[in-house]
Automatic annotation (TrEMBL):
Any Pfam family: MacB_PCD
Primary location recorded for the protein, binned into one broad class: membrane
Region spans: Disordered: 103-126
Protein name, UniProt field: ABC transport system permease protein
Top-level taxonomic group: Bacteria
Span of domain ABC3 transporter permease C-terminal: 309-427
Keyword Cell membrane in annotation: yes
Compartment(s) where it occurs, according to its Swiss-Prot or TrEMBL record: Cell membrane
């Protein structure tokens, strides 16, 4: 083992001296290999970034990976049961959703049914659906006016623990303060677009409410949704309507519960109370978010295709190293024969040549990784304003590892044949010289 370590050290030292003595050829080898290693780095970095973006979009629209989702059908009393079960808990959040209209009373909203603000024919048809999924066209007899219809979600806690909304302006709901009589709401981007475009009165109507409330818009977030939506504290909403109003089938309310993987008891307790209330257990649907597996299956084929293309470019660079290595061995025949004559083992000669190509591959990998990192920083600074997700992008360590492996493999493949040829040079060559 000591002799092997000594030979390895000698091969590295002599190989480094050879690189220093032939700088131009080393530079040519690095240039031929640079694009191949850079292609591998870019493909790996791109796949990691794409996976991160797909997971971020999934977390916005659904929830973080591993979160347990529970959907409860509309039933009298289910909302109050959910509120009592989840009160004071931070590992589970109930989201009670219904349609709300903000603006002038007695008029048809600019987006009937809560459709997107820019949807063609915004004053077209709207539908109302019951708990069984039966939908009927809703014909509004009211004249058009200044009002916006949106999806209103009442929360028992901070839903950002499960769905990390991206803040756009203002602030998020403060669940630590006392509930306000004028309910504070946070809009999504589509709803904010509507309120920026239309000047509507601050009067909010909800099915089943006892009186219209005056909402306060405190912030705007990106929730990944396409329709206008708003978020409100459930205790502030309950100042204006009874708890059962959100869970009655005739009001079209929807109840969803997001549960942390570390709190399995919440699911069992809540489900037992809902069944005791009279809800059919077959209608209580639960599902665990498994976005990472779905995203990886989507990206695996694309990653293999681009890695195959990068491998072809890397092979071209490897051929360049091979060509330079064979030419170098041809010029150093007398040197290697002389080393053999003074007792240098064949394995050490092969190690010297391999050390040169491996060191060249490592230096090329370092240059490609550095260029990739600088390119990502430059792209983030140039396009960060247009694509907010690029602002917090970092160079993935997986891309650096892939670049080092690509450089070592290219150095090994490009130097293997020249190393074998150097090891087979006969001692008699020095006598002919």
């Amino acid at each position: 083992m000591i002799r092997l370590s000594g030979r390895l050290r000698s091969a590295l030292i002599i190989g480094g001296q050879g690189i220093r003595a032939r700088k131009l050829r080393t530079l040519l080898s690095m240039l031929s290999l640079f694009l191949g290693v850079l292609a591998v780095v870019v493909v790996q970095a791109g796949s990691e970034f794409a996976q991160k973006e797909l997971l971020a979009d999934s977390e916005l629209s659904m929830a973080k990976d591993g979160t347990l989702q529970m959907w409860v059908p509309p039933h009298a009393g289910s909302g109050q049961v959910a509120l009592d079960t989840l009160q004071g808990r931070g590992d589970a959040v109930a989201a009670l959703s219904t349609q709300a209209t903000i603006g002038e009373p007695g008029v048809s909203p600019v987006n009937p049914g809560g459709s997107p603000i820019d949807q063609p024919g915004g004053r077209g048809r709207s539908y109302r659906c019951d708990s069984q999924g039966n939908c009927k066209e809703h014909l509004a007899d009211a004249p058009p006016g200044k009002a916006i219809e949106l999806n209103l979600t009442a929360l028992t806690g901070d839903i950002r623990v499960f769905r990390p909304f991206r803040p756009e302006s203002g602030q998020w709901l403060d669940f630590g303060s006392a509930p306000a009589l004028a309910p504070r709401i946070v809009l999504n981007k589509e709803a904010a677009k509507g309120f920026n475009r239309y000047q509507v009165p601050a009067q909010m109507r909800i099915p089943g409410n006892t009186a219209d409330s005056t909402p306060q818009i405190v912030g705007v977030v990106d929730d990944g949704g396409y329709g206008p939506a708003a978020y409100i504290r459930v205790d502030e909403l309950l100042n204006w309507l009874p708890a059962d109003a959100l869970s009655k089938p005739e009001n079209g309310g929807r109840l969803q519960v997001l549960i942390s993987p570390a709190a399995p008891d919440v699911e069992q307790t809540l489900k037992a109370r809902l069944v005791a209330l009279g809800i059919d257990p077959q209608q209580i649907y639960t599902d665990r978010v498994n976005s990472r597996q779905r995203v990886e299956s989507q990206l695996s084929l694309m990653r293999l295709i681009f890695l195959g293309m990068a491998a072809l470019v890397l092979l071209i660079g490897t051929a360049g190293i091979l060509n330079v290595g064979l030419a170098t061995v041809g010029e150093r025949v007398e040197e290697f024969a002389l080393r053999r004559a003074v007792g240098t083992p064949r394995m050490l000669l092969a190690g010297i040549v391999l050390a040169e190509t491996l060191l060249t591959g490592l230096m090329t990998a370092a240059a490609a990784i550095g260029a990739g990192a600088v390119g990502i920083r430059f792209g983030a600074s140039m396009f960060g304003s247009r694509f907010p997700s690029l602002r917090a992008i970092d160079f993935p360590w997986q891309a650096g590892v892939a670049g080092v492996i690509a450089g070592l493999v290219a150095g090994l493949l490009g130097g293997l044949i020249p190393a074998i040829r150097a090891a087979r040079i006969p001692i008699a060559t020095v006598m002919r010289a």
